[in-house]
Amino acid sequence: MARAGLGITKWMIDHGLAKIEVRSADGNHTLEDVYILVVLSKGKEIMGKLSIEIQTRKSIADGKGAEKFYNELTTPPDKFWETELRDLVIKKKQPCKIFVQPDTIIVSN
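Now predict its structure.
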């Protein structure tokens, strides 16, 4: 998982927008979908706090503070994040959507 994606996922889990649960009979972890009602009621506020945190550090040129915040945000809390969760995210990853637009050219001899 890319570090930024890991950081956003960790922020969402830490602030109650998403959750990791054991849901399958074989004991495998599944990444629970984001809670729709929680996102609708608190998502803007919670994700806004992340944006403000990042933007504030950037605006005041707090390089050391920004680096510390980013490293804390993107450091996996345990081995589960580096192994099972990463594999789960990759398994659920969907291919990029590609938009192809035709181009017509008139060629005369």
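The chain has a mean pLDDT of 79.
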